[in-house]
Every structure is written in C-alpha cells, then in structure tokens.
Amino acid sequence: MTATDPALTALSQGWCALSLLHGRIEAHIERALQAGHGLSVREYSLLDVLSRQHDGVGGHLQMKQVADAVVLSQSATTRLVTRLEDRGLLARYLCPTDRRGIYTNVSDAGLKLLAEARPTNDAALREALDDAAGNPGLAPLVRVVESASAPAHPVPSMGVPS
C-alpha cells in the first residue's frame, strides 16, 4: 500500500469525519453544560462514571479505571477529581481492604448536580446529532450512532447520555 492508495485515503477520510463529528458533539455539549450547570464535559463524564459505582465486589473503580473511562491520563484524572472534591462534589476515602487504595464517591451535592445536568447533556447530544445529520459527510456516522444499541454493561464515555 502506498500513501495514495484509495483504501488508505478512504480510511483517512472516514477517520476525519468521525473526528469532526466527535468534536462538534463535544463542543456543543460543553457549551450547554457550562452555561447551565458550570460543568465541563470531562467533569460531567467523571461524575457520571463515579455515580455508577456500587458497594459490591468490584464495584469501586481504581484511579486507572476511572482515567480509562473518561479518556484522560491518571494525573489529569487525579487533578480533575481534586477540583471536583474542592467543589464538594466528590469525596475520597481509603479502601477498607487495601490501605494503599483510595476510592472516590460522588457526594450528595454531586449526585444532585449530575441529575440536574443529565437532561442538558441529553438534549445537547440530540441537538448536535440533529445538526450533524444535515451534513452529507456526517449523516452516515450519525445514523450509526443512533442505531448503536447500548452494551449490557455500559462503557461510560464523554458526553454520552446515561
């Protein structure tokens, strides 16, 4: 295969379209969440991921798992957790079975803000998809997003409604 290979060119164009769709959706949701709730997409995503934890076996996520779920480095995730903790939206505590482990839970205030922000996130996602559906280059990707069924165990991701 060469750089001018039609298969590579089509693949590259598809990737660019997907990246464009993601960027437009994320920017639209970001504006809506900031304006309505003072949250960034990353903050919303982190609250959403952490709100899904439970007290059963394997119910609490380690920081690496949280970082993977919100698509950030561990250090960026730790900084994000600290910012939300400083706002009273999260609380950290030591793992009862491994004193080296630290867990993070969403506070009552964080759960309340998440519940208030969820309809905004969902509406902004719908608006962004509707807008992108009018672009012939993005419309096929919008149809794929709309037709994708939720996995049995949802994988938390940025800006996706819960």
Write a structural description.
The chain is mainly alpha-helical. It is 61% helix and 6% strand. It has six helices and two strands; from the N terminus they run H-H-H-H-E-E-H-H. Strands 1-2 form a two-stranded antiparallel ribbon. The longest helix has 32 residues, at 6-37.
Give the key terms.
mainly alpha, 6 helices, 61% helix, disordered C terminus
Quick synopsis:
This protein has helices spanning about 5-35, 40-50, 65-70, 75-85, 110-135, 140-145, and strands spanning about 90-95, 100-105. The chain is mainly alpha-helical and about 160 residues long.
What's the arrangement of secondary structure elements?
Elements: H1 6-37, H2 41-51, H3 63-70, H4 74-86, E1 90-94, E2 102-106, H5 108-133, H6 139-147
Antiparallel strand pairs: 1-2
Helix pairs in contact: 1-5, 2-5, 3-4, 5-6
Q: Give me the side-by-side strand order of the main sheet.
A: 1-2
**What percentage of residues falls in helices of 4 or more residues?**
55-70%
**Number of helical segments?**
6
Number of strands: 2
Q: Which band does the percent of strand residues land in? A: 5-15%
Whole-angstrom Rg: 18 Å
* Anisotropy-based shape: globular
Q: What's the SSE pattern? A: HHHHEEHH
Structural class: mainly alpha
Largest sheet: 2 strands, antiparallel
Task: Calculate the mean pLDDT score and round it.
Answer: 88
Distance between the termini: 42 Å
Unreliable residue stretches: 153-162
